[in-house]
Amino acid sequence: MIVRRVARGDAEAIVALLNPIIRAGGLTAMDQSFTADEQRAFIDGLPPGAIYLAAVEAGTIVGIQDVLPLPDGTGAISTFVRLDRHGRGIGRTLTRATLARARQQGYRRLVALVRADNPTALAFYQAVGFRVAEIEPAVPGREVRLVFPVTAGDSHALPRP
Length: 161
Ligand SMILES: CC(C)(COP(=O)(O)OP(=O)(O)OC[C@H]1O[C@@H](n2cnc3c(N)ncnc32)[C@H](O)[C@@H]1OP(=O)(O)O)[C@@H](O)C(=O)NCCC(=O)NCCS
Prior knowledge:
Keywords: Acyltransferase, Transferase. With 161 residues, the protein is α+β, with helices and mostly antiparallel strands.
C-alpha cells in the first residue's frame, strides 16, 4: 500500500469508495451521494493547509483521509476506507501519514466529529490516539468530538477530567 496526495483525477475513484459508505447509512453525517463533478469541485476548492491523502493498493484507492483547517491551529479530520477493506490497517496507515503532515504544517490539534452510534469509528479514532473531548447534543443523533493533540502539551486539545 502506498499513501499519496489526492489529485483531481481521483474524483471518480473517490465517489466509488464514498457513495457505498453514505448509502450504507449510519456511518457518516453525509446523507447524499456525490457525483464525480462535485468531488472534483471539492478537490479544486480545498483551502490552503488542507491535507487530503489516498491509500492505494494495486492501483485502486482503498482509503481516503482529509484534514480541513479550522481557526486556531485546529484541523477537522475525516476518514473513509472502502467497505470491503475495513480492519486491515488502512485507516491507521493513513492516519500516520496525515499526522506527519499535520505536524510539519503546524497544526496544533486534530478533531474528529463522529456519530455517537458509530462504534467502529469511535474505536478507530481512539485506537490511533484521539481522546473523547465532548459529546455534543446535536439533533438528529449525538455527535462525539474526539481530539488528537498534535502539539505535545496542548492543553486545549485534552478532555477536561
Ligand atoms: C473507521 C474506519 C475509517 C476505520 O478504518 P480501518 O482501515 O478499517 O481501520 P484499521 O484497520 O486501520 O484499524 C485501526 C484500529 O482501529 C480499531 N478498530 C478498527 N475497526 C474496529 C472495529 N470494527 N471495532 C473495534 N475497533 C476497531 C482497532 O483498534 C484497530 O487496530 P487493530 O486492528 O490493531 O486492532 C472505517 O471503518 C470506515 O471507513 N468506516 C466508515 C466511514 C466512517 O465511519 N468514518 C468515520 C467518520 S469520519
